[in-house]
Amino acid sequence: MQLHNFFRSSASYRVRIALGLKGLPFDYIPVHLSRDGGEQFAPAYRSLSPEALVPVLRNGEVSLHQSLAIIEYLDELHPEPPLLPRDPLGRATVRALALDIACDIHPLNNLRVLKYLGDTAGLTKEARDAWYHHWVHTGFSALETRLAHSHTTGQFCYGDQPTLADLTLVPQVFNAQRFNVDLSAYPVLGRIAQRCMQLPAFTAAAPGQQPDAQ
Amino acid sequence: MQLHNFFRSSASYRVRIALGLKGLPFDYIPVHLSRDGGEQFAPAYRSLSPEALVPVLRNGEVSLHQSLAIIEYLDELHPEPPLLPRDPLGRATVRALALDIACDIHPLNNLRVLKYLGDTAGLTKEARDAWYHHWVHTGFSALETRLAHSHTTGQFCYGDQPTLADLTLVPQVFNAQRFNVDLSAYPVLGRIAQRCMQLPAFTAAAPGQQPDAQ
Lengths: 214, 214
Description:
2 copies of one chain form a homodimer.
Chain A: E1 2-5, H1 10-22, E2 27-30, H2 43-48, E3 56-59, E4 62-65, H3 67-77, H4 88-102, H5 111-119, H6 125-149, H7 164-178, H8 187-196, H9 200-204
Parallel strand pairs in A: 1-2
Antiparallel strand pairs in A: 1-3, 3-4
Helix pairs in contact in A: 1-3, 1-7, 4-7, 7-8
């Protein structure tokens, strides 16, 4: 398997954690999102991803995109350890927590969006930072409330084993810290992220540990 | 079952189509996203959705959020007609197509984001419209390329039966049309959306058909 990805990309980081938890080896193919105007726009890469986004996972003839779809695919083919609960309600709960971040925080704050807000919409760095912080706080305060009140919250977002929700949370926490967002109002999220970082699959997948890290 | 939703919300529309295809009756509970400063911010609703987002599906003690998670839950409990293929690769393909819209187009263009860009970031209506169009064109041109080149594209996004991908595409097409986006460059998307609208579940779920439509 080859993972086309970028060390700092949250979506890439999610898939790296999944591959690590499943114990699946892979070739790391770096796609630098800002060097030379963005390697994701090169024609060879766009034949894999017309979206010009990372990650893409390849396995022989199979080529997959969208991190959450890739992770569910890996979980279906390699069920141990499971990244989703066995029951439909548990699965829906975990998927919803992951989508709370993957749909309602991350897309607003990724590189291409911040670039558009600066280059095209003409927002100052201050206004772009305010935008970034606003969506993290909006999303994280709802998620904190949800997890603080749910009886299914355990050591991790759902129970005492990591799931798709934790694989989505940790990269978003990392990203927010890079943008100096104060996360002290989110003790449950902080506790879970810390618990995750006790697992080798999470630490090995961290941006700073990747071959293209600068 | 009760669906807390809003006629014009794309995420609500997706779930209404799923309920229709499955033949599941539900009570329609309107949550008006702009009246009185937004009914989604009322404390009673926030006890269901700390995110202050629609839709929420309730069934007895069960309360579910995030449209794609709700649809997968319905599909697991009521497998006919299936909204995802049976094989892992097919499932990953359909999920990725749905996420192409649900993560990379829709979150950038929904009401709360357009409101922030106007009220807080101070963008003119012209600049907000340019933003809206930019992300629809970015997402739809990649999706058009992907579907035009894939051997799994049929009458619908994947094969000849509607899937989660179509349930996500149609509301986004509707939304783009409301913002006067020219979709003539996307003949495959247009053809699929037209095919979907031949099915009663899609037309009955359309915004204009809902009790809170204005």
